[in-house]
Design brief:
304 residues; 5-stranded antiparallel beta sheet; two-stranded antiparallel ribbon
Length: 304
């Protein structure tokens, strides 16, 4: 087409053609859900998140707070589809949401740490949960988890187990650290940080790893990174810092003894008389003369 013909066509209202067709708009392909992630061991970043969450709770809650360790075998639930990893996470999410509401209704700290495992000890797929709980409420919590997840017992294995160390509760930092070390047992024995093996440095004994599809561990928002940052918490990063947040029973006893020695030295410097131990108080009371142990009383008891 010549220039004159093009000008005439444009004057008549024709649309210009520039030598190529306008590209068609690409039709968005129907999105398919991304398959959940797959891990064979607990990543160190998630382990560090759990340790910081527990250390933050220890620093903010009263020292006499009692805790409980619950195990929910979610695979033993009605209508559970073991081939769909999202079904596990959805059922666990419903359980944890009900637990959070239940804690808040009773005026308890809405804190929780959890980790998923697969092992024959509690059936197969199950979740470990660590949360503040008075020992007298352990049966109520077990019933709540059972109803929220529609869990059922099977011969030889209960669907929900709540451990509170008897009526004392998990009431010491060393005992709670022991539970958390059990949470970390599925880390990779080959994991290293700056060339140092992580599990021995944290005092964690390795167990058989397990494959998990989807999120492997987590906490409630009250113990999450955002809540810790808002409270001015300094994150524990090095292995020595993380290890200090996981004291053993022997280390806790030594620390209590050192604290006692420091208080004793402070009282001595202040010129305050040392406190008598219960054993010494009992011995002192035994040495005091009994005003009723006279000859007349002795004769009376002899006559009887």
């Amino acid at each position: 087409m010549s220039r004159l013909q093009t000008a005439a066509a444009l004057a008549a209202g024709a649309r210009p053609v520039w030598g190529y067709a306008r590209p068609k708009r690409a039709v968005a392909a129907q999105s398919t859900p991304r398959p959940p992630s797959r891990t064979t061991s607990l990543p160190f970043q998630q382990a560090k998140e759990l340790v910081n969450a527990l250390a933050f709770a220890e620093a903010t809650l009263p020292p006499d707070t009692r805790w409980a360790h619950a195990v929910a075998v979610i695979e033993q639930s009605e209508g559970f589809d073991g081939d769909d990893p999202r079904a596990y996470l959805a059922r666990q999410g419903r359980i944890l949401a009900r637990v959070r509401e239940w804690l808040l209704c009773r005026g308890l700290p809405a804190h929780c740490l959890w980790v998923r495992e697969v092992s024959p000890r509690y059936g197969r797929a199950h979740s470990h949960i660590l949360l503040p709980l008075p020992p007298e409420l352990r049966d109520d919590l077990a019933e709540l988890v059972r109803r929220a997840g529609r869990l059922r017992d099977i011969p030889g294995n209960r669907a929900v187990v709540v451990s509170t160390n008897g009526d004392r509760g998990i009431g010491t930092p060393a005992s709670r650290a022991g539970v958390l070390r059990d949470f970390l047992k599925t880390m990779s024995p080959k994991a290293r940080l700056n060339g140092v093996p992580i599990m021995p440095a944290l005092g964690v004994r390795p167990r058989a790893p397990c494959t998990i599809h989807g999120k492997r561990s987590g906490t409630f928002e009250s113990l999450g990174r955002a809540a810790r940052a808002a409270a001015g918490w300094r994150e524990l990063e090095t292995l020595s810092e993380l290890r200090a947040a996981l004291p053993t029973g022997e280390e806790a006893r030594k620390e209590r003894h050192r604290a006692k020695q420091r208080r004793r030295r402070a009282r001595r410097r202040a010129g305050i008389a040392p406190l008598l131990s219960p054993t010494r108080c009992t011995a002192a009371r035994r040495q005091e003369p009994d005003p009723f142990a006279d000859d007349l009383a002795a004769d009376f008891f002899d006559n009887e």
